[in-house]
Design goal:
about 525 residues, about 0% strand, Methane Monooxygenase Hydroxylase, Chain G, domain 1, elongated, single chain, 21 helices, mainly alpha
Length: about 525
Amino acid sequence: MLSMIAQGLGGLGLFLLGMVLMTDGLKSVAGGSLRTILTKTVRGPVSGIAAGTGVSALVQSSNATTIATIGFVSAGLIGFLPAVGVVLGSNIGTTSTGWLVAVLGMRYSIAPYAMMLVLVGAMILLLRLGRSAALGTAIAGFGLLFVGLGGMQEAMGGLAERIDPESLPGAGWGGRMVLLGAGFAMSIVTQSASAALAATLAALASGALNFEQSAALVIGQNVGAAVAAAIAAIGASVTAKRTAMAHVLFNVILGGLLIVSLRPFLEGMLWLFAFVGLGPGVLALAAFNTFTRVIGVLLVLPVIGAYAALVERLIPERSASPTRFLDRSVGRVGSVASEAARRSAAETLREFLAALGAGRTRMAVDGAQNAAARIREFMAELSREGQNRSDVRRNLSTLHAIDHIERLAGNATAIESIPRSDRVSDVRDRYDEVKRIAIEWLDDPSKPVPAEKLEELGEEIAELRKTNRRKVLAEAAEGELDSRAVASYTEAVIHLDRSAYHIWRALHHLDPDKPEPDVGAEHRD
């Protein structure tokens, strides 16, 4: 008995390891596809549901999809309402793992070839040829899934000889709640609803559980997976908490409705499945998992606006810090982390420029410097995460932007003290225009960066600095100005020139459509 339990737990461990390797490999192979799919195709709740379903099925992880969504909502690339659609869709997409287990693991068992898949994946991984290494990781993980599933099936088969399903709870409210709690605990302990579902499918296939008992376990597992996501969001950003709350509410409400009406619901579902020759087996349980999620999404879809508003009221926004995008969970996905850092830098620059001239310069300087330090710290942690070349280039651009923001903050106090005089009015007017254009773009970054206009104004300032400097020196030579006035003017226009330049270059590097850093123009102090 103990040996069978040990074998079953070992099989579960291999399955979990396979899930981790396969998901990590698929995420790396996908590269920037997560960002492209979610930001380019999601326009509303319906497209969000479709994208969430597709991406979760692609990477075999609703967590990866949810984390990506958190980052893009924080970055302002996806609104919260469409993001709720993505979360709901990810609940459907993640059920694809159950179909893999039921079809390939049990209906058409590929377990005898699973070890060969592990070998193939390991050989590809050892060659380490770019993305093929990630593909090797995914293949090896895929093989381990079925090695672990085989161990679980064998152990469950032995246990089925000693356990009568009729002796287990299931009939009546008390039995359902016990199984609901057991399924909940399985997801919490394994941190994976897919692994818990695989164990349940193995138990059903071996006869250790009947269909109704298995369905009650699955409901509890889905609720447990959502609560595990909520636990992970404790202490995280408001966006992460809202996304987790949308996930939890959906699964808890759906789970409650299903457990209340479980028996009539199963009878009606199996009656429908009978028309396609599907009995109460592993395929029907996988279908039950998908079918219930689809029904749940269809019930929420007509009131999704009110649903999103409810979540926002439950978790209100209390902070508008420019670094609020830098949630710890965001750092797990390279393209999302890069976008969160870029957006944080843009928000830091926007708040800093808006505060200048409003009597808050000292506070603005401190805020910009603190935010820059926080973004650098966040990006330093990313060096230990899997980053593709595009992410690295984007991170380099963000670091260039942060450098310009810090230099700009260093000039702010000097600019604030420049007296309003005719001698610097033409330079200041152009500097104010640069600042105005920058704030306008930062308020609406969906527009193209006005790089040409900013560069043109910067060149005008540089030319005025040279021309007016000659005039000031000529006046000093004729005795019309003293040396202190010359020094004051020279220092003023230098600070205005440098600040306008740093604003232009910061925006250049913050342009999301230009991830490749242009270091050729980085020549001024």
